[in-house]
Amino acid sequence: MATFYKWYNARLAAAPILTHCVTTGFLFGAGDVVAQALSPDPALKGRYDYIRTARMCFHGGVVFAPVVSQWYKLISTRIVIPGRPMLEALARMAVDQTVWAPVGIASFYVSMGVLQLHSWEQIKQELQTKWWRTMVGNYAVWPAVQFVNFRIIPLDYRLMFVNIVSIGWNAFLSWFSATNIERSMETLEKAEHKLEEFEAKVEKRF
């Protein structure tokens, strides 16, 4: 870990944008590897879609990383509340989640659609059917993560922190975007039902 830390610091000093792009692309791809390995879709059993992983790497490294690295710099310099670090982190998180999160999720589906050579009508349908459900999932995860990020993590490491946390989130995004809406919603409903059954058992026990 110490060796990686030294290497990462050296790369950040020499080429910060390139370093962010390469590491983000790699970790987006890692999320897709997890998604394909754990996918409940029987159509994926026994085969691996390398092109799908490449699309995730491209979006992470070419679309997501350059924009988000500059976004973090922007809100870190524009949203400053001297002497109120908790309030400052909360304000930055609120702006991030109300401004960037909706745009970032939309850009993901547009990017995936373009890379798959979908028509604009297909991309719009994807956004209409999946964007809001993804936003609901986003707000279950990212407000708390981003509060910690803006409160504790130094600016140069915020994107890396998000990328590491994002492996699981990117796995969800990859699976949800690659699955047709009927099958994905059915799988989510089954997962929610199992979670409700588990919570009910826990309540009975305690």
Automatic annotation (TrEMBL):
Alphabetical UniProt keywords: Membrane, Transmembrane, Transmembrane helix
InterPro entries (UniProt xref): Mpv17_PMP22 (IPR007248)
Keyword Transmembrane helix: yes
Membrane topology: Multi-pass membrane protein
Cellular compartments annotated: Membrane
Pfam families for this protein: Mpv17_PMP22
GO biological process, one term: ethanol metabolic process
Gene Ontology CC terms: mitochondrial inner membrane
Transmembrane annotation, as ranges: 12-35, 94-115, 159-178
Family of the protein in this entry: Belongs to the peroxisomal membrane protein PXMP2/4 family.
Stated name of the protein: Protein SYM1
Organism name: Lipomyces starkeyi NRRL Y-11557
